[in-house]
Design a protein that fits this description.
single chain; 489 residues; mainly alpha; 4 domains; two-stranded antiparallel ribbon; 25 helices; 3% strand
């Protein structure tokens, strides 16, 4: 009976609302009990009280019907690190809003925070399902994002990645745990990959092969060699690249074909040096074919086809002859050259008179974090490299705390001018940079600097005439300075 009364009351409220929208009184169409209650109320107040009763009824007696497309998802998992302090959240939100269309900058920001021992509040930022290059601490959120439109995520009982638990672990969490297993027990990780790789599609097989890159050793070679017979060309290429890092790439027909697109010579009168140069090609088809061969041939295999060793090829390549060929050559090295060759190529490119920063950026991911920091410090001290370019090479979290290095070097004057740049006058910015480029450079500086350097740079900005401490472009430096090396200060 109560349900029937609620339906009648709801119908009456709809009629009352229609009256009110037309500017007419609604007492006549109100529920009988409400009309009786209004008998002792003065006429001017009756409509107001009816309006109040209608609102109370809607809030207390009615429940909104959810749309049919809603799905129940798992609760958002807690992360292993503490959440950013509430006092710093407005700064973080401004930074995220400023990079709303730039997920790469957002990832750099949250990477730095994880490096400093904190994570964002989930109301301020969440990863997307395809954010694979985040620190492992964010893996539960990435796994949640993968499953929020599907089944409930229930991995609380899965502590170890094994053959039995493989299918119970979401892909993002599986990748993170496989990486951790590879670091802790390379043989066990390889055995698990060998077991599961034949059962998954080619794209996932490629990712499983790439999981062997950390801790790669000769023990991995037999299985990698077996993949050279895989039906997927991408899987075969991934295996060839890793075998190349082990100096196990043999000369092949494709390597010989690529060698035919190059020419060898010697230069120097007293000290004869071997030189490998890309041939000047006449047609677009030849260019396309040479690029495709660079993508599939291993570094050591090309050296063998040229009848030289990999170290000689690294020293002999004639950089500057053909920029596109230089890029493909460096990408080939980054994929398949041994670590010693990567070091030799970076040394050559850093010492060269020409600007090869774009090529160095391709090789830098192969370096350990300490080596990347050293490389960035060398470039900051020797060249006029922009902060954004240095960040692309080194990544966030380098914690460069030497302000003389950050604001010195050949570009010292321009770097120092960034901190006193006017927000609207393009002519007043260093080297005539537009204001948005100044903001990008200061953001990159905030990701490169250590907390002590960030605090010192803020002080320098406060002493300047134009870029005051309240300027939102200083938010990255401000957040950096507020985070110690172990978390929030």
């Amino acid at each position: 009976m109560a349900a029937r009364d609620d339906i009648d009351t709801t119908d009456a409220i709809e009629a009352m609302t229609a009256r009110w929208l037309m500017g007419s009184p609604a007492l006549e169409v109100s529920p009988p009990a409400w009309r009786d209650a209004m008998s002792g109320v003065a006429s001017p107040d009756q409509e107001l009280q009816l309006f109040a009763l209608a609102g109370q009824f809607a809030q207390r007696a009615l429940r909104p019907v959810p749309p049919s497309g809603l799905a129940v998802t798992a609760p958002l998992p807690a992360l292993a690190l503490p959440t950013l302090d509430d006092a710093l959240r407005p700064i973080f939100r401004r930074l995220v809003a400023g990079a709303a269309k730039d997920r790469a900058s957002q990832r750099q920001l949250v990477n730095l925070m994880a490096h400093r021992g904190v994570v964002p509040h989930p109301a301020d930022w969440l990863p997307e399902a395809n954010d694979d290059d985040l620190p492992a601490v964010y893996t539960p959120w990435v796994a949640w994002a993968e499953h929020r439109k599907g089944t409930l995520l229930d991995t609380a009982s899965v502590h170890d990645l094994t053959a039995e638990s493989w299918d119970d672990v979401p892909p993002a969490m599986r990748r993170a745990r496989l990486d951790a297993l590879r670091r802790a027990d390379p043989a066990a990780a390889r055995a698990l990959i060998e077991l599961k790789a034949p059962l998954v599609p080619a794209e996932e097989r490629v990712r499983l092969v790439e999981c062997l890159a950390p801790g790669l050793s000769d023990a991995d070679a037999p299985w990698l060699e077996s993949l050279l017979r895989d039906r997927s060309t991408k899987v075969k290429a991934a295996a060839q690249h890793l075998l190349g890092r082990l100096s196990r790439s043999a000369a092949s027909d494709e390597a010989a074909e690529l060698a035919a697109f190059l020419e060898t010579s010697k230069k120097g009168l007293i000290r004869r040096q071997f030189v490998v140069s890309p041939l000047a090609l006449k047609t677009a088809a030849q260019q396309t074919r040479r690029q495709a061969l660079f993508d599939t041939v291993g570094f050591s295999a090309l050296a063998a086809a040229l009848a030289i060793d990999a170290a000689t090829l690294a020293q002999a390549w004639a950089f500057g002859t053909d920029p596109l060929a230089d890029l493909r050559f460096v990408i080939m090295a980054a994929q398949s050259a041994p670590d010693s060759i990567i070091d030799a190529l970076i040394d050559r490119l850093v010492d060269a008179a020409a600007d090869h920063r774009a090529l160095i950026e391709r090789l830098a991911p192969r370096l350990e974090p300490t080596a990347r920091r050293t490389l960035v410090e060398i470039l900051l001290g020797r060249t006029d490299i922009a902060f954004a370019a240095a960040l692309a090479i080194g990544g966030p979290g380098l914690d460069v705390d030497d302000t003389r290095l950050l604001l010195g070097g050949p570009a010292g004057a321009a770097r120092q001018a960034l901190l006193v740049a006017d927000a609207t006058d393009a002519e007043a910015t260093p080297n005539g940079l537009p204001p948005y480029m100044v903001a990008i450079e200061i953001f990159a500086l905030g990701l490169l600097a250590g907390p002590a350097a960030a605090a010192a740079l803020l002080q320098r900005a406060g002493d300047g005439a134009s870029l005051r401490l309240a300027d939102p472009r200083l938010d990255m430096l401000r957040l950096n300075a507020a985070l110690s090396s172990k978390g929030q200060s």
